[in-house]
Amino acid sequence: MAQAKTNAMRILDTHKIPYEILTYDNKDGKIDGVSVAGKIGREPEEVFKTLVAQGASKNIYVFVIPVAEELDMKKAAKAASEKNMEMVPVKDIQKWTGYIRGGCSPIGMKKHYQTFLDESCQGLQSMVVSAGKIGMQIVISPGQLKEVTKAGITAITK
Question: Shortest CA distance to 138 belongs to which of 123, 120, 126, 125?
Fold first, then answer.
């Protein structure tokens, strides 16, 4: 049975960027990044979560970091040239991005937000990010993710 394409996949197709789809069973409710990495048979260092934060300016930013890591708010604020940074409440993620928690892709949000990839992605051949739907992941090269999201690459984890 063919999977329905997510917005993220349609954008990658439009840009002719190659990617691979990985699916996992989410019926057990375990959709945290480390659990997902185990379900798809990847190391946690290769699987990235998409975090949405808001700066003092009220601008929204997107941070893509390894699933086992924590976003360093000071580094995130510095990267975005903000005085400070705080996470967007989970209840507001869909309002800003069009995605839900556990299915938030850095590709294809409602509008383009300044995006930052953690520097750890630079040593990888490929990285895994959400396809925009719980149970689906995209395998993509860091360079192509950077290109399609117009992301900066910097140190943003603790």
Answer: 126
Neighbouring CB atoms inside 10 A of 5's CB total 16
Please list, residue by residue across 30-58, b when 16 or more beta carbons sit within 10 angstroms of its beta carbon and e when fewer do.
ebebebbbebeebebbbbbbbbbbbbeee
Instruction: Compute how many other C-beta atoms are within 10 angstroms of the C-beta atom of residue 3.
Output: 12
Distance CA 85, CA 32 (A): 22
Whether the full predicted model's pTM is greater than 0.85, yes or no, is yes
Residue-wise pLDDT for 35-91, tens only, equals 999 999 999 999 999 999 999 999 999 999 999 999 999 999 999 999 999 999 999
Both structure tokens of 115: 């995006």
